[in-house]
Amino acid sequence: MINHDLHVIGAGLAGSEAAWQAAHAGLKVALHEMRPLRMTEAHKTEFCAELVCSNSFRSDDAEHNAVGLLHEEMRRMGSLIMSCADAHKVPAGSALAVDRDGFSSAVSEALIAHPSIEIVRGEIAGPPPVEWKNVIIATGPLTSPALAEAIRRLTGEESLAFFDAIAPIVHRETINFDIAWLQSRYDKKGPGGDGADYVNCPLDEGQYAGFLGALLAAEKTEFKEWEASTPYFEGCLPIEVMAERGHDTLRFGPMKPVGLTDPRTGRRPYAVVQLRQDNALGTLYNIVGFQTKLKHGSQTEVFRLIPGLERAEFARLGGIHRNTFLNSPKLLDGSLRLKARPSLRFAGQITGVEGYLESAAIGLLAGRFAADERLGPPPQTTALGALVAHITGGHYSSGAGAKGAFQPMNVNFGLFPEVGELNEDGDAGRIKGKERGRARKRALTRRALADLQGWLQPVRSAAE
Question: CA spacing 20 to 30 A to 327: which of 65, 269, 398, 422?
Answer without folding.
Answer: 65
